[in-house]
Every structure is written in C-alpha cells, then in structure tokens.
Amino acid sequence: MFRKRLPPEEERKVKANDREYNEKFQYASNCIVTSKYNIVTFLPVNLFEQFQEVANTYFLFLLILQLIPQISSLSWFTTIVPLALVLSITAVKDATDDYFRHKSDNQVNNRESQVLIRGSLQNEKWMNVRVGDIIKLENNQFVAADVLLLSTSEPHGLCYIETAELDGETNMKVRQSISVTAELCDPNHLASFDGEVMCEPPNNKLDRFCGTLYWREKKYPLTNQNMLLRGCVLRNTEACYGLVIFAGPDTKLMQNSGRTKFKRTSIDRLMNTLVLWIFGFLVCMGGILAVGNAIWEKEVGFLFQSFLPWDPPVDNFLFSAFLSFWSYVIILNTVVPISLYVSVEVIRLGHSYFINWDQQMFCSQCNTAAEARTTTLNEELGQVEYIFSDKTGTLTQNIMTFNKCSINGQSYGELTGPLGIQPTRLNFTPLNPLADPNFCFYDEKLLESVKVGDSHTHEFFRLLSLCHTVMSEEKSEGELVYKAQSPDEGALVTAARNFGFVFRSRTPGTITTTEMGQTVTYSLLAILDFNNIRKRMSVIVRNPEGRIRLYCKGADTVLVERLQPCNQELISITSDHLNEYAADGLRTLALAYRDLSEEEWEAWSESHRFADKATDCREDRLAATYDKIEQEMLLLGATAIEDKLQEGVPETIALLSLANIKIWVLTGDKQETAVNIGYSCKMLTDDMTEVIIISGHTVQSVRHELRRARERMLALSRAREEGKGIEGWAEAGFMRNGCKEGQAGDGTADGGGEGARKPSQCPPIPPIPSNLMDSISGEFALVISGHSLAHALEPDMEEEFLSTACACKAVICCRVTPLQKAQVVELIKKHKKAVTLAVGDGANDVSMIKSAHIGVGISGQEGIQAVLASDYSFAQFRFLQRLLLVHGRWSYLRMCRFLCYFFYKNFAFTMVHFWFGFFCGFSAQTVYDQFFITLYNIVYTSLPVLAMGMFDQDVPDQRSLEYPKLYEPGQLNLLFNKREFFICITQGIYTSVVLFFVPYAVLSDATQSNGVPLADYQSFAVTTATALVIVVSVQIALDTGFWTVFNHVFVWGSLGSFFTIMFALHSQTLFRNLPNQFHFVGSAQNTLLQPVVWLTIALATAICIVPVLAFRFLKLDLKPQLSDTVRYTQLVRQKRRKPAGRSMGGVWRGTGSVSEGRLGARGGSRRSGYAFAHQEGFGELITSGKNMRLSSLGLASFASRHSTGWIDTLRRKKNNPTPPGTSGENSPALSIVSGSVPPLSNSSSVLGGSQETPIEEEAVTAPAQNTDSDLAVCKQTSTSAVSEAAKPHGSAQANAAGVSTSIRGRPHVKDSSGGWAHSLGTVQVSHCLYWTE
Question: How many whole angstroms separate alpha carbon 676 and alpha carbon 674?
Fold first, then answer.
C-alpha cells in the first residue's frame, strides 16, 4: 500500500530514448509541488497546525469542561462558536494561500514541451516529461528540466542562455554540446541515439556537473558547460535538443528552493508563552478558591445540610472543592477570551487591506498595486532589523546607459545651465540612418567634437567599435541587432554606433565597421580575452593602410600601470574625472591604445602561439604574454556607464539605515559589479572607515582574513576614539584578504591568484571575543565572495563570520547561490534572534524569501516566482520604506496597544469574580449575570478596542518617514513584552479591586430614598457592571491617540448599547414572556435611579483613572518618548504655520558640489569605479569562428552598400572648424598628447548628443529651534542622510555632536524616461531625540 522510501542516490544512470530502463530507478517525475495541502489532507493537517497554537488547545480544553454539567456555570455555546469562527477564518486564509500555490504549480506543470517519442516530436506537458527523454527547445523558451545539450541549430553545437532565474544574472552565457552529438540535428538521427549517461546524483551545485557519456563503445566526459538547467531561457538560438538528466524536484533549481514554512510573528510566539502563564495563574486562583471552598464547606457548610444539601454526586467537602476548582477555571477563563483571537484576525485583515489600498505604493508605470499576500505578519513589519536584498532587478533595473565619458582630458556628459531647464535629447536618426533610436545622450560638446573630426574623439569611438566580443545581426539593410554577452558591452558599442562608428559584422579574422558613413574592414589579428584577474581586454587589429594597433579597455587601476610615463598630467586629469564618475556611482572603464611595428607584432605573435600550445600552465603563460604586449600604451579616455537603479533606491536605503535596519545585499553577480552598485545606492560611501574584502579559497585563509579584519576594525575604532592618527587611516578603503595593499597574497593581477598568501607572510591571529566587537565605532563594510562564504557558513566558522559582518554597517555577498542566500538568512535568525526580511524578484530568490521571517517579492522582469513565494509584493524597491516605516510601524503599534488594553480590561472584568468568591462561600457564583458575561467581550467592549487596533496612530505617515528613529521601539520590542504584560494585568487587578470593594463598602450601608437598603446582590451587580463599562471606556478614550468617526461611534455607541441592553434585560416585557430566564425585573432602573449609586460609580472611576492620568503626565514631562516629542513639535509647527514648500511632497534635488566630502575622509585617496559584467572565453570563441554561421563570413561586403551622401551634406554645413573644448583654454595637459594621433581611417565627422545629468543646487541650511527646553535633545537630520543618498557628487561633512542643524535638500532619481522623478520631496527636519536616564 505504501511505497518504500528509496535510498539516496550515489550515481545516476540515464539511457536515452529508453523509458522502461530508466523507470527501473524510479526517478522523480517532472511534476513540481510547492503547495502544502490537497483535498484529502487539508482538514487534518490544517487543524493539526492550528492546534499547535497554545490558545486554540486551551479553548478546546475549556470547551470540554463546559460540556460537563456538574462543573459548568456557563453555556458551552459561548466557547464553541468563537472557537469555530477562529478556526474557520484561519482555515479559509490558509486554503486561499495554498490555492494560489496550486494554481502556480499547475501553470508551470502544464507548460508544453516538444518531446521525441517513437521517432517524432510530440507536444507533452512538462509534468509528463521523464528522465531519459529527448526534448526540443526553441528560442526564448524556458528549459523544462536539467538536460544534457546534444545539438543546436548554431555552428559547433553552441547555444546562448540567460540564467536570471538561477543566479540573477541577465548577461548571456554560452553552452556547447560535445562534438560527437553536435551533428544530431534531425529527429530521425536523434531517435536512434541510445547513449547512456552516468553522472553525479541530484545536488544544489549550480556551477558544477560531472558525468560521462557512453556511446558506441566510447567514453566522453561531461561538464557544466554541456548542461542546460531548468529555469534558464534559451536566447539567440533557433533551436536545440537535450537529454533529460534531472527532472522535477531533482533539478538544481528545485534543490535550491526552500520548503514552504509556516510563519508566525514574535507576538504570536509571546502570546503562546503568556497563555501558558495565564493558565498557570488561572490554576493558582482556582486552587486558592477550591481550598477556600473545602474549608468553608467543612467549617460552615455542614450547618446548611439540613435544608440545603449537596447535589447527589457530591458526598464530602473534598469532592465539593474538586468540582469548585473546575467551576472557577471555567468562570475565570475570560482573562483570555477567545474573542481576543477573533479580534486579532480582524485587525490583521484590516491592516492587509490598508496596504493593498495604499495609493502611494501603487506603480503607475506597470499598473501594479502593493499586495499583502498574507494577513499574519503585519505587525512583524514593524520589528525588522535585517533586510536581505537581491541586486539585479531589485535594486537595479539592469539597464545600462552610456552616461558620461572623458576624452583627452575633456569630460562630456556634465550638463550645466539654468536650473529647471530640461535638456534636449539629440536625435541621431536624420543624419545617421544606422543610429539606434533608443540611445539617449544630451551633451552638445561631444557632438561638436565628433563633427569637426577631432582625432582623439574619433579614436575613442573607434576603440569602442572594435574592442569587444559583440555579435551583430543585420536582418535587413540598416537594421542592426547586437547580441552582447553583457549589457555593459552592448551600451558601449551602441554609443559608438550612434556617434558614427558602427560595428557591422565580424568573421574570425576581420571586423567590419562603418565609420562616418564609410565602410572600413580591419584585420583582427588577436583578441586578448578578459578575465577577472586581468580586468581588461584588448584587440590587435590591422587597418586597410597596414598599420597595426592594440586597443585596450579595462579597470583604471590596472591600465594606469601600463601607460607611457609621459602622460602623467593627462592621467591626473582623467583620474579626477574617473573619481567624479565613481562618486556618482557610475561604472567606469579606462581606454588606451598602442601602435605596434611589424617586427613587434611578429615577435609577440610567435610567443603567443608558443604559449597557446603549451601543455602545462597554459593560462599563466598566456596571461604573461598578454601582459608583455599591453605596456607603454597611450591613454585615450574613460567611459562611465550607469547601471540604472530603480527609482528611489538610495533614499530608501538611507531612510532604512537611519531606522537602524541593516541591509545586506546577496547577489549572484561578480564582485566589482556588486561593489559598484553598493556605491551607487549609497550602501557604501567614500566616507566609510574601511571596506573589507574577504576572498579566501580555503577555510584557513577565510578564518585568517576574518580575524585580521576584526583586528583592524578594533584598531581603527580605538584610534578614532583616542583621536590619534594611525598608519593606514588615509589608505584607500579596500582591504585585500585581510592584508594591506602591497603585501603578498593580495590577489591583484601582479601578485598571482587570490588566497595565495603563505601562512608565514601573515601569521595566525587569535580570535577576538565577540563582546569587544560591540564596542566598535566607525563605519565599516564587508564584501565577501561566494567561495569564501561557503567556508564562512561552516559550523565552526559561522560565529566568526557573524561577529565580523554584524559589526559592519553594510554587507555585500557576491557570487552566491540561491541556497547560500537562504543559509545567510538562517544564520542571522539562529544567532541574532532578529526579525529578518528578504526581498527579491527572481526564482533564485525564492529560497531566501521563504527562509526569512518576512518575504517580499518585486514584480519585475524575472517572472512571478518570487511574488508567488512572498508574503508581500509590490513593483519597486522604494515602496519598502513605506511598507516598514509606515504600515509596519503602525501595525506593530496598534497590535501592541490592542493587546495591552485587551488584557487590562479582561483582568479588570474577571478578577471581580475572584474577590467575590471570598464573600459567597466559594460557591462559584458569578458577580454579573450570564448575559453581561456573554456580551461584555462581544458587544460592550469589542468595537472600541477593534477601532483602536485598526485606525490608531501616534504620528502621521509623513512624520514616520521624517523621523526614522520612531521605528526602533519595534526592533527593541518595547511596546508589548513580558514587562508590559505584567504592568497591564497589574492595572487590571488594581481596577478589579476598586470596582469590587468600593461598591461593596458603599452599598453595604447605603439605603434608597425610601429607606430600603441597597445591599442586595442585583443592585451590587448592576453598580459594579456599570462602573466597569464606564471605566474601561474612559481608559480606551485615554489610550486612543488618533480619533476617527469610527472611534467616536464605537466608544460612545458601546456605552449606549450597554445601558439599552441592560434596561431591556430588566424590563417587564421580557419578564412576562420568559420569567424563568429574566428574574430581576426592574433592578437596573431601580438601582440607577439612586444618586448614591452614581456617586459610587464616579468615585470608583476616579480612583481607577486618576492614578493613570498622573503617571502618564509625569512620564510625559520627565521621560517623554520620541513619538511624544514629535507630536509636540507638530503642534508647535501648526501654531506657527510653517512656510510653504517644506512638506514631504516637494521637489528634492541633490547638491552638485564636487566630492570634497568623500575625499576628505581619505586624505585624497581615490576609489575605482571599475565594473564590467563580462566573462572569459568569448575572445577565443570568436577567433576560432565556432560561434559564427558560414553565411556571416561574407557579411563584410554587405556593409559597404550603405550610402555616404549624408556625411557630405553634414560637411558642407560645418562652419566652425574648432570644436568647443579643444581651444587654448583647455588644460595644458591636453597639449602633451594632442595633435599627433594618426587616425586609422580617413573618415571624419558624425552626429552626437548629450545625456541628461543632475541639475546642481547648493544645500540650504537653517538653524532648527528646540521645541522643548526641558529636554536633552540631540537633533540630527534624517533629511541630511537621505539627501546625501541622492547627491550626485560628494557628501556633506558630518555635524559636530550636539550641534542643532537642519538641511533641506531635494533628492533626485532618474526615471526610466530620462527625467527626474520625485521620490521623497522636500523633507522636514528630522529630530533624533534622546534622554538620559
């Protein structure tokens, strides 16, 4: 009946086109299941999960007790209805969530794929694909399973894939089939393929595959380069065939996906503990009253046996006490009524709808609203301490734009002019038919420089059109489509294309371009390929005139060392430009060239051939050969590409950082790219004390680097505190492998591979106690690579990694797998006990989203997998600030106030029964009638507290964003914890004492106006009940901080409903119709007509409320909270009628100063903005011709057909032969290299344009006035930090401690159309206030 669980695989065997053979191993099908329930298992599994809540089990136990008539004084109906309601609401919510998971699974499982069955291709659903099947994939299709690539429509069995769903990278990657199967392109040939694959078992290693193909009595090794993984998308390849190796849950994508977890908030977990405590308290109270019952029955009760005997089951005082114990447990159970859980679910549902309805979280561009996909985690949004974010698609749009450039010491792309004037985008199309209409540039100076034929400018764009690995496809004349391996290269080649240097086509030995309207074909002599160690690539070409030139582009840090020394002044100017570009967060590359003589080329070519054919150390020999020729180059300039951030990202990160939220970026991208984005979004700044890089390849090296990093952090921290300078304080902020620059093993291009340091060079460092790390001052950042992180996450290393990372302000993890993302999140959850939030947009983020306490999905360009796995979703990262600082904080505040008040009112209500027990012979008699007990939590007090839990707020949403420090009480769990709980129940017990003993003392001797005593049971019950309802209503009026129409209606309406229902229950009409149920006719009217009763109620109310008012007044005066001061300053501002234009909705522009603030902290050191999302291997692929169709070899002749008439027209229109920026007004550095650069082509002039750049405006500073002289107030400006995040250049110097300033800035963010989008507007001064104890 039950299938035996299979043992874990040690080796997988797959035979092509043989399902019977493969089914013997019972491999998993390709059907995936991410849902938790099905129709059969839903009810039992869901009930089992719900009864794991202690409260649900507690109420079920009470329900069972109430079914026993001998001990129950209340009807079982009062418990079963609310319990069933709570279980039903939760079940419906869980069923809805799981329905969407089923829907997503069905959508994926029912996708169709072409499967080769019995010699013909048939459409099959993905879930019916089996291991061993051969499937056909077409361009832009998702890969259905992990398949071995057999053949493709491209030459040499190549295909291109995009792996964004796996690792977040959108640049294309190349996969190649093994040569023996590359010719099997026909279904008939593939049907006869019977090869057998033996490979490793299923695992989560995305970058590794090891196997062997056995076919025709030969063996062929298989690697990851031969595999297409599920989740990849086929790009730029018409079709390919693959053999399914892993299917469904065995695929690497699913192996990296975490399981769906049942998430509960910290308040839920605390409530479980409190319910246990309350139950223990209940047992103690029941035990005390049961002992009292036993004593009373033994000493006094026997006197009544003659006329009031015990009920039949009871035959002695001990059994009477036993029954009395359970009766009191039932009566006193209202300290935690089940209506509490009903109200909590209603409040959470309301908070979810507020998120869904928030128009400020609606993205009009993609017509997407924010969505709360769960209702159980809203208050947890107000307690987040760690945010784990993906990079590509989450922080960035993954759109590369050519933004600025520096050519021969002249910077282009900086726009200056009157503020508010929108620059005009240049239109290239009329004068350059081959221009890309989507290209944007605005700077007129660069256009003029190209028009007049400036040799440096032409050489600059000629380099961009030649030095790359882009493939060009010309479907029709003039319609060019570039297939770039990385978006960086695509942006650079497109820029050259629009400025008249159009890359048209290539063959293994030639590159054809159209330069200023003339077709030029260069001989491609060599490609010196890019890799992460070289950080540069070069091409060597021969022009039609026979001159040989090397063109190189790469990181400025490596190119500067290889330039001719005569270029120092130009190098200095260009370096300043690079520094400015890097400060703007742009990705920079330096460009250089070198002329080669025929003899130099021949000699180098011979040494290159020798290195290429070497059997040992081939890579090292080639690198040395490349390095030999890439010397004595002349600097041409630099490029600056913007990896466009999503709108509002820097401002959002700045605000969240001010709220003491730590942001970690976990990305699959390479280190340089991730670091560059870190600077762009202001996670990393040049004012940081140090940016530490961990890149060891072994456990020992990683441990050593982490310990050395902590040692250095402590040293810098001590030096900062002591005010003494130490060696290295003015160094550039990067620490390579824990050693200073220049030490062996730093991992630079000159020093060999990373992690190559010998132990003797960096002696072992003892571990530093974690408590010392808490005392670190200064701002540090940590960058760690994926291979280092794998070692850092090992059990004996994780605490060292954690102590180092948590001492840093920012952490960036590069080249991480989806599973490593989840492991980092779990590490923080395990050791820091902090609330975590993960945000991502792709399938590679799903495991991280599931692991975190809160998962947020960005509905971006990488599908909807992240959204489907998330708890909340919206369109842009910037909405995160509103989700946390507004909705999250409000939800936490409301829930805490709701719980505090709810426990207070129920202890005040219930404990009256306890005191009454000492005066009623411990008989389990209730003070109130049964109708009041039933309606108290349902009608009389439910709606006011519900309104407070739904609508209350301490400060408006604008102030929540303006004062991020308001968020910290949630992180510290200050508003509802065990201490606050005990305060609430103490107040409730005090209220119950007053409500019982004051009426008891007054009414015991009081008489009516006619002389009849008032000391009867029902008069006492009416008086106590009325006083209780009035006191709790006044209390909630005091607790409510934000009054709405609903609050007024519910508070005063509940009071009115109490009197209406009470008079109705004591009316003559009900007594006549149901005399057995309503005994006390007229008691309410008679009691409440007595003045002494109202005086008693007023006295009890005053005794209950006045101490609370006095305590709150003193607390507000002596130790106010930040929210109290914010409200006070808001009132002061309203009275003073603040000037117009200081609201949150204004325009916010950053300052345009140079980056003196950034460099000041470093003593003039400079950070490289180099980042290039490129991979090694494409150069060799191009020169071998493997990635080119046979027809492409003849495309060079096609490029020459284009007309050149437009260039002649442009030449006739030229009036000024000297372009701006090339006259004598320029820097003297320009004359060093200008004037004698021989062009490789005789073409001249083309159209150009300029791109929009930030409009600069100085910050306006004004003194802020203290709103309360009695407070010790340190006013800091969150505005200054947020405007710092939005600055295009530099950063403001920090204010001295205690100085009261306010900065009004206007941050700007580029929107997708090139304009400036308004994100936060003009922000009010933010006050960070603190008080000494």
Answer: 5
For residue 1219, the model assigns a pLDDT of 41
Question: Count of alpha carbons within 13 Å of 1267, Cβ hemisphere only?
Answer: 21
Taking 90 as the threshold, does the pLDDT of residue 1223 lie above it? no
Write down the H helix ranges in 142-265.
Answer: 164-167, 187-191, 252-255
pLDDT grade, residue 421 (50/70/90)?
A: low
Rounded Cα distance, 129 and 112, in Å:
10
pTM over 0.90: no
Is 774 a catalytic site residue?
Answer: no
Average pLDDT over residues 179-185: 88
Tell me what pLDDT residue 861 has: 59
Residue 168 pLDDT > 80, yes or no?
no
Of the candidates 411, 413, 343, 354, the one whose C-alpha atom is nearest the C-alpha of residue 378 is 354
pLDDT at 72 > cutoff 60 = yes
Reported as half-sphere exposure (CB side, CA atoms, 13 A), residue 1036 has a value of 32
**Phi and psi based region of residue 409 (left: phi greater than 0; alpha: psi -120 to 50; beta: remaining):** left
Which two three-digit tokens encode residue 1122? 């930040």
Tokens for 513, please give them: 């371009």
pLDDT in tens, 756-778: 333 334 455 555 555 566 667 67
Point out the annotated binding site for Mg(2+): 390, 392, 841, 845
pLDDT in tens, 819-860: 889 999 999 998 988 999 999 887 778 889 988 999 999 886
Q: What is the SS3 assignment for 704?
A: helix
Per-residue confidence (pLDDT) for residue 336, from 0 to 100: 79
Task: Please list, residue by residue across 66-98, b when 16 or more beta carbons sit within 10 angstroms of its beta carbon and e when fewer do.
Answer: beeeebbbbebebbbebbeebbebbbebbeebb
Q: How far is the C-alpha of 608 from the C-alpha of 527, rounded, in Å?
A: 11
| Residue 885, CB-side half-sphere exposure with 13 Å CA sphere | 27
Annotated binding site for ATP: 390-392, 489, 530, 553, 587, 667-669, 815, 821, 844-845
Question: Exposed, middle or buried: residue 440 (CB in 10 Å: 0-12, 13-18, 19+)?
Answer: middle
Q: What is the separation, in whole angstroms, between the first and last Cα of the chain?
A: 69
At CA 697, angle to CA 692 and CA 702, rounded to 5? 50
Query: Which of 390, 488, 1039, 1124 is flagged as catalytic?
Result: 390
pLDDT value at 680 more than 50: yes
DSSP one-letter code for 938: I
Residue 1247 DSSP symbol: -
* Known binding-site positions: 390-392, 489, 530, 553, 587, 667-669, 815, 821, 841, 844-845
Give the DSSP H/E element, type plus range, for residue 528. Answer: strand 518-528
Assigned token pair, 1185: 């011709």
pLDDT on residue 888 = 94
pLDDT of residue 987 exceeding 90? yes
CA 833 to chain CA centroid, Å, is: 18
- Using H for helix, E for strand and C for coil, what is the string for 112-162? EEEEEECCEEEEEEHHHCCCCCEEEEECCCECCCEEEEEEECCHHHEEEEE
Q: Element (H or E) spanning 539, and its range?
A: strand 536-542
Structure tokens at 1048: 């007024």
